[in-house]
Structures are given as structure tokens and as C-alpha cells.
Specification:
A two-stranded antiparallel sheet has the order 1-2. The chain starts with a strand and ends with a helix. It is rod-shaped and about 80 Å long. The model has no long low-confidence stretch (mean pLDDT 89). It has helices spanning 17-20, 48-64, 66-84; strands at 4-5, 34-35. The longest helix is centred in the C-terminal third of the chain and has 19 residues, at 66-84. The chain folds into 2 domains: 4-35, no CATH class; 48-84. The protein contains 3 helices and 2 strands. The structure holds iron/sulfur cluster.
Length: 85
């Protein structure tokens, strides 16, 4: 786990994502000069999120409709068995 340290005498919290969205509950806030949870609010967004989200959505949809998918599978197998006779 990395320990981020302030450079230049300014608290890390001033540029931290968790300070900006008010979700930090660390007691050092807002004057932390070092922190293990620091996340730079100025970092550029990554494109990895979009592909991850679409994969996650498909998995979530399958998990939510697993009963329907099982029923459709049984119907398909039944139809194949009838057609093969
Ligand atoms: S996570 Fe650390 S740097 Fe960020 S706001 Fe909280 S105490 Fe400050």
C-alpha cells in the first residue's frame, strides 16, 4: 500500500477526490500531509472504465435473468429432441 506525501507544504486533501466529493472520514482531513488513500482529483479519466462497465452490465443482466435463460434453454432442448425423432 503506497503512502502518498505532500510536496510543497500544501495538504494532500486539497487535491484529493475524496475531499472533493466529501466522502473522506479520515481524522487527518483536511490537513493530511501524508495519506494511504489519496486519489488525485486532477488525474485524467481512463477509458478502461467504459469496457469494464459494459462487461459488468452483461454479467449483471445474465445473473438477474438466469431463471428465464434456464427456461429458454429447456424449451430449446425439448424442441431439438422432438425434431430429432
Ligand atoms: S483520503 Fe487522505 S488525502 Fe484524501 S481527503 Fe481523506 S485524509 Fe485527505
Amino acid at each position: 500500500m503506497p503512502l502518498y506525501r505532500s510536496v510543497g507544504g500544501e495538504p494532500l486533501c486539497l487535491t484529493c477526490t475524496y475531499y472533493a466529493d466529501n466522502t473522506c472520514t479520515f481524522p487527518k482531513r483536511p490537513d493530511a500531509m501524508d495519506c494511504t488513500l489519496y486519489d488525485d482529483v486532477r488525474k485524467p479519466p481512463t477509458d478502461i472504465h467504459s469496457s469494464y462497465k459494459s462487461t459488468f452490465r452483461v454479467k449483471a443482466w445474465v445473473e438477474r435473468h438466469i431463471g428465464l435463460l434456464a427456461l429458454l434453454g429447456l424449451i430449446l432442448i425439448s424442441l431439438l429432441l422432438v425434431l430429432m425423432r
